[in-house]
Amino acid sequence: MCILGRDARKHPETMKNKEISKQGLRTWIEIDKRALRNNCKEFRCLIAPKCLLMAVVKSNAYGHSLIDLSRAAENLGVDWLGVDSIVEAESLRKAGLKKPILVLGYTLQDRAENATKNNISLTVADFPSLKALGTINRGGSELKIHLKIDTGMHRQGFFVSEIPEVIKILKSGKLPITLEGVYTHFSSAKNPAFPAATFNQIEEFKRAIGLLESAGFKIPVKHAAATSGTILFPQSHFDLVRIGIGLYGLWPSKEAKAAFEGKINLEPVLSWKTIVGQIKNLPKGSKIGYDLTETLNRPSKVAVLPIGYWHGFPRALSGIGKVLIKGREAKVLGRVSMDMISVDITEVKNVKVRDEAIIIGKSGKLEISADDIANMSDTINYEIVTRLNPLMKRIVV
User: Where do the H-state alpha helices sit in the chain?
Assistant: First the structure.
C-alpha cells in the first residue's frame, strides 16, 4: 500500500473551517480531500509509471460535486478528467480546469464545435457521428476524438468488423480531426472468478488497435480499464486507466472487495450529514408517518430529521433504514417522506435539537456506508451516491 500523508481531518484549522462552512445548513455533504489523496495514491500504485490516470467525474462526480472534486483531483496530479457530456466539460473549463478532458457520452452535432474552442476531446462511437464531423465549424482547430470500440458490451462503439470502413472514412481527408485515442469498456470485469469475457474483450480491442495501426494511424492514448479492470486485470491498463467509483473510495463490486480489500486501501471520500430538527415523546401504540405503516411497541422518543427522498434518501428504507446519532444507531420509523424522516432515539442519551445525525459516514465506532444503504435498498453504491441531490451543499474538508 502507498504511504499516506498527514491526516488533515484532525488539523484544528481544517475543523474550524468545516464548522464555519456548515453554519445555517440543515443538511450537507462533506468531501474528504485526504481520503481522495489516499485513493489516488492507491491507484497510482497499481499502474505503471507511464500509465495515465483519468479521474472520471461524470454525473456530478458521482454525487461528490463536479467542480470541487475535479479541482481537488487536478491538484493531486491526475492526468485526465472524464465526463459524460459536453455540458459538464464546458463547466469545468469555465471553472478554470486545465487538464485534458474526454467526453465519454454522446455529443449532439451542434455542440461538437464547442469542443474545439475549449480543447475538449470527444468520443465518437457510430458512423453518423463520425461522418457529421466533416460539417462542424472548427474555428481553425482540429477536433480531437477517441474512437469507442464495442468489444462485447454492446452499448456504444464500432464493432471490430467495422474498423476497415472507419479507416476508409478517416483517410478520406474530409474530416479535420486528430485521432487522439481509442478505447473500449468492459461488460463484466467486476468478478475475478469469471475472467473469460474480459480476456476476450481485451483480445478484440487489440485486434481493433492492430487494424488502425496497420493502416498507419499512431494512437497516443489507448484505454480499456475502469476501476474494476484496473484492479483485477493488469493486462488491460494500456496507456490510461479510467478511475470512477474507486476514486471515491467505493468498491465496484462485492467480489472485487472480497478479493482485494486487504491489498488495496480504499477510503470513502463522501459523508452525508443532517441535524435533528425536532424531538417528540410518543406513547406506546402511536402510529408513525404516511399511511400509518409503523406502530410503536413501546413509549418512544422520536427525532425528526429534515431530509427525505428528494435529498436522495431512498424511500425503500422506510421502516428499515438507520442513521447514526452520538455514536448510536437510530432506526427509521414509518415511511420516508419527501423532505423528512422520523428516527427512534429512545436508546440514545442526551439528544438535542440541532445535534448532528450521520446518514453516510462514521459516528464513534459505527459507520453507515453507501454500500449499507445500497444493500438495504436492493441497488448498488453507484446509484446511492449519484442520486444525492446536487443542490445540497458540498463542503471540502
Answer: 12-21, 33-46, 58-63, 66-75, 86-94, 109-117, 127-132, 163-170, 196-214, 227-232, 254-260, 370-377, 381-386
Distance CA(98)–CA(241), nearest Å, equals 19
Q: Which of helix, strand or coil describes residue 217?
A: coil
First to last CA, the chain: 23
**Quick one: pLDDT at residue 135?**
83
DSSP codes joined into one string, 164-192: HHHHHHHTTS---EEEEEEEE--SS-S-T
Contact (CB, 8 A) for 63 and 386: yes
Low-confidence ranges of the chain (pLDDT < 70): 1-18, 20, 137-140
Q: Determine contact, residues 112/124, Cβ cutoff 8 Å.
A: no
Across 337-373, b (16+ Cβ under 10 Å) vs e yields beebbbbbbbebeebeeeeebbbbbebeeeebbbbeb
The span from the CA of 56 to the CA of 247, in Å, is 8
Amino acid at 174: K
Give the pLDDT score at 175.
84
Provide CB contacts within 8 A for 157, sequence distance 6+. Answer: 125, 148, 149, 150, 151, 184, 185
- Amino acid residing at 32: D
- The reported pLDDT for the residue numbered 59 is 97
Q: Which residue has the cell 468489444?
A: 151
Buried b or exposed e, range 44-63, using 16+ CB within 10 angstroms: bebbeeebbbbbbbbbbbbb
What are the pLDDT digits (tens) for 138-173?
A: 666 789 999 999 999 999 999 999 999 999 999 988
92 touches 117 (CB < 8 A): no
Length of the chain: 397
Report the distance separating Cα 175 and Cα 358, nearest Å: 53
Distance between CA atoms of residues 213 and 209, nearest Å: 6
The pLDDT of residue 23: 82
Active site residues: 58, 290
Grid coordinates representing 315?
Answer: 424511500
> How far apart, in whole angstroms, are the C-alpha atoms of residue 285 and residue 271?
35
Phi/psi at 174 (nearest 5 deg)?
-90, -10
